[in-house]
Design goal:
Thaumatin_CS; Thaumatin; binds 2-acetamido-2-deoxy-beta-D-glucopyranose; 6-stranded antiparallel β-sheet; 5-stranded mixed β-sheet; 228 residues; Thaumatin-like protein; signal; alpha+beta; disordered N terminus
């Protein structure tokens, strides 16, 4: 009887669809541990203002590739969610649908890939603005970049609110590894980043020490300013 009622049926289908999505999605809880406001951003996912100690909970679908989470600083947005940020701005909108402007520290992820493994990392290839940590709820590696990179940034890489990657500043094949034939390796600048954040990508071919995996099905916590 109830199932023949179109309203009951659509409610049932909605609940069923939500259950299936929940079973296949990973939850990313993104928390602001900084003592200043951070405007969190995710692609896919959007964006949210986080006062200190606030959390934004994001569902990431099974099979998502090319996922990115980062924090934006010193933003002003109006009532329709339009404005600008000092770092990490994604085209002037609160709810991002494209990547942030460097410098920004970025958490990257790809879910349920080869052998149902999740891949995750922190990259400094777009520079650094906020310290960040990513920790799976499963027993897999916690990865963090918690050094004062902005405060120690080499003069030529300094930027308002952060520290640029040399590729952003100089745009040369050596720093950007645009051709693998260049035998691209570490540079003095990439070593500056790697010395301070050994778990994070410091140059494009830095995979061996910078990419992490976890069995698919884990949830994740992303924490800005983990040292606080
Ligand atoms: C993700 O999808 C794949 C393929 O459909 C499936 O094998 C796997 O169990 C799913 N993982 C999770 C955590 O839902
Ligand atoms: C935030 O923390 C830093 C470092 O501990 C401190 O210097 C600064 O005064 C704090 N700012 C606020 C607004 O609490
Ligand atoms: C931070 O938030 C958590 C969870 O909402 C809460 O339990 C904790 O007391 C808060 N800490 C501070 C210092 O406000
Ligand atoms: C950015 O915001 C922080 C914290 O609110 C503040 O201390 C700093 O002066 C701001 N920077 C700029 C360039 O406005
Ligand atoms: C928000 O800012 C945008 C871009 O500056 C502007 O076009 C829009 O009219 C503003 N909306 C409101 C409600 O102020
Ligand atoms: C991204 O968001 C902006 C502003 O909300 C919108 O105008 C634009 O169409 C969106 N682009 C895509 C690819 O969804
Ligand atoms: C977590 O994994 C490590 C390394 O594989 C292992 O030594 C440890 O016993 C595991 N801890 C738990 C609680 O499963
Ligand atoms: C970087 O240099 C390449 C050519 O070497 C050029 O095609 C590209 O547009 C440059 N990128 C920027 C952001 O200037
Ligand atoms: C994320 O936060 C929600 C709400 O506080 C909580 O129920 C859930 O257990 C958290 N998940 C993770 C992975 O921390």
């Amino acid at each position: 009887m109830a199932a023949t009622n179109p309203r009951s049926l659509s409610v049932f289908l909605l609940i069923a669809a939500t259950w299936v999505a929940a079973a296949q999605a990973a939850t990313f809880n993104i928390t602001n541990g900084c003592n200043y406001t951070v405007w969190a951003a995710a692609v896919p996912g959007g964006g949210a203002r986080l006062n200190p100690n606030e959390t934004w909970s994001l569902e990431v679908a099974n099979g998502t590739t090319g996922g990115r989470i980062w924090g934006r600083t010193n933003c002003t947005f109006n009532s329709t969610g339009q404005g600008t940020c000092l770092t990490g701005d994604c085209g002037g909108v609160l709810v991002c649908n494209k990547t942030g402007t460097p410098p920004n520290t970025v958490v990257e992820f790809a879910m349920n890939q080869y052998n149902n493994l999740d891949f995750y990392d922190i990259t400094l290839l777009d520079g650094f603005n906020i310290p960040v940590q990513v920790s799976p709820t499963y027993n897999c590696s916690t990865v963090k970049c918690a050094a004062d990179i902005t405060g120690e940034c080499p003069t030529q890489l300094q930027a308002p609110g952060g520290c640029n990657n040399p590729c952003t500043v100089f745009n040369t094949t050596q720093y950007c590894c645009t051709s693998s034939a260049d035998g691209c390796g570490p540079t003095d600048y990439s070593k500056f980043f790697k010395d301070r954040c050994p778990d994070a990508y410091s140059y494009p071919m830095d995979d061996a020490t910078s990419t992490f995996t976890c069995v698919g099905g884990s949830d994740y916590r992303v924490l800005f300013c983990p040292s606080f």
